[in-house]
Design goal:
five-stranded mixed beta barrel; 12 strands; binds zinc ion
Length: 219
Amino acid sequence: MLFRTALLIVFLAITTAFSADTSTFRAKVIGVLDGDTIEVLRDKSPVRIRLYGIDCPEHDQDFGTRAKQFTSDKVFGKTVEVVPMDQDRYERLVAKIYIDRKYLNQMIVAEGFAWWYQRCAPKDDDLQIAENGARASSKGLWSHPDPIPPWDFRKTKESTNGKAHQKPEPKANYHGNIKSKVFHKPDCQYYNCSNCTAKFNSPEEASKNGYRPCTSCSP
Ligand SMILES: [Zn+2]
């Protein structure tokens, strides 16, 4: 019985939290983290919001800083209308933002400070029209002949970082048995024996250290 009650409470808590996030609300903008990410104060607690359907250039991309500045100029310290659309994988609220009845997300795209994030907002005509206009008049990021979409930029960066973090495999092609003083090639059955903890880059190096070649694998 107690368990059931606990379950019910958990269930209610989840549904309440979710339904609370789906209705439009007004809130003051207390932070601008990025051109497309802001923080508002709702019921005295900060809520991070990812702007729906747009993707601004990253900090280290051209126009990343300008995008942030634009959003900041428009809404920082002001009260905006928040229309929740979704929640992203970081559990941030994804929303349309209106300031003085104007659609902020669209304004950012129209100035060339963001891409229309078509994958996440395929049906948002306002954003599509805004992007077409910005492209046609080479505004902001469209002043580049071939701008890199931030989602591609992030992918490239991730794979480059991944490579940088991979430690190069230490070059130790020969293992020596520290007891018997015999050394082996990688394809030898004794290569990883419990006493084979000495590592050499070459047979010459092994010999110099007083090791003799294994008769089985003849390194
Ligand atoms: Zn061997």
